[in-house]
Amino acid sequence: MANIVVVGTQWGDEGKGKVVDLLTAGVEFVVRFQGGNNAGHTLEVDDRQFIFHIIPSGILYEDKKCLIGNGLVVDPGVLLEEMEGLEKSGITVGPDRLSLSEKAHMIMPYHKALDLAREAAKGKDKIGTTGRGIGPCYEDKVTRTGVRAIDLTEPDVLEAKIRTNLKEKNFLLEKFLGVSPLEAQPILDHYLAMGQTLAPFITDVSVELDQAVKAGKAILFEGAQGTHLDIDHGTYPFVTSSNPVAGAACAGSGIGPKQIHHVVGIVKAYTTRVGAGPFMTELEDETGNFIQEKGKEFGATTGRRRRCGWLDLVVVGDSVRLNGLDSMAITKLDVLSGLETLKICVAYEIDGQMVHQRPASLGKTALCKPVYKEMPGWKEDITAARKKSDLPAAALDYLSVIEEITGIPASIISVGPGRNDTIVVKTPGS
Ligand code: IMP
Description:
The chain is of the alpha/beta class. The protein is built from 12 helices and 20 strands.
C-alpha cells in the first residue's frame, strides 16, 4: 500500500477530516506534520460527532497508530483534554496508539498571551488568528528558544527555559502590549505535571516511521490548514505560521521524500476562508449565505462564521503545482444542489490582462477580478450517489471542468457528511 499525503488546496476547512478518515482504513500509521490546535477536523461516525484539534482522527480505528510529528506546535493541555475526551467516549489512548515527537514544540501560556495581545493591538489590521499561540510558538522555534516535548521530562532544562523566556515575554506583554505579565513557577509546575502524564507517549517519531517503512506498513500524512495559508506560499501575511504544503510532510515528521507515493489535494466544491485576507471569489450576497448555511460553514476551532464564495481554480491550480498533486478529493458537492447557476473562477483579470497564478503582491491581488465560467446547477439531492453515474449531468459537467482545468483526476467525491456519503472513483495510491 502506498504512503499518501493529504493536503488542503484552499484556505483550510476543505473537509480533510473525512477524507483522512476514509483513507485511514487502508494504512497502519497516521501522522500529522505541521500546525497545532488551530486546526479542527469534524467527523461524523455512527451518528456521533468527533472534533479533533491535534490527535489524528485515525485514533477512532483500534488498529491504527497515530503520530504527532516534530513539525507541530502542541499545547499539552489541549492534547491531554483531547485524550481524556476520547477515553470518555470509550476510545483507549495508550502509547501503543499514540506518539508525540520529542522534538515537537510546546505552546506555552506566554505564546497564547502574546497571540491575543498582539491581535488586539493590531485592531482593524488583525490577521484573525485562532488565538491559540501558534505563531509565537513557531517564532520561538526559529529563534531557538522554544520548549520541546522532551524538555517536559527534564525539569532543569524546562525551568531554565521558562525563566529565561519569561524575562523577554513579560517585558513585551507588560511594557509593549499593556497586559499582565505571567509568573514562572505556576507554569513550571503545570508543565512538569503534564510532562509526567505525557512521558510514555514522547518518542522519536522519525525512528518509528522508519521502522514502519522497513516493515512495509502504509503511512498516511495528514495535513492541516490549506496551501493558501502556507507561511511561504499563502496570502502572506494573512497566513498561518507553518507549511501546510505536501513537501512539509517530510521535514515535519522526519522521513525522506522518496517514501511519499501519492499526494491527494482536498478541494471543496466552493471556497471558504476564516479570518482576514484576500478572497477573490467571495460572495457577500444571498448565494454566499445559502452556501454558508447549507454547508454549515462555521470554524471547528473558533466557531467563527466562514466567508464563502465560488470555487477558485486559480487558487486550486497553484496548489496542484505547489504540492505536486496526483489526485483530488472533491468535497461538499452536495452543498451546491439547488443553486440555479454555478460559477467557477478560471482566471483573474488585472487591468485587462489575464492571469493564471495568484500574484504575491497583496496590492496586485486586490486588483484581481475573477473570470468566471458559468454553468447550470442541479436541483437533485445527490447525497445518495455512490458512483459517478448516479450524479446528475450538470454535476458531472461541474466535475469535468475542475478536472480539465487543473489537469488532475478526482479520485474521491464527497456528497455528504457521513462516512458512506462518498464516491470513490479510484482509491488514491492504488
Ligand atoms: P493562526 O494559525 O491561529 O496563527 O491563524 C492564522 C490564520 O490562519 C487565520 O486567518 C486563521 O483563521 C487561519 N487558520 C488557522 N488554522 C486554520 C484552519 O485549520 N482552518 C482554516 N483557517 C485556519
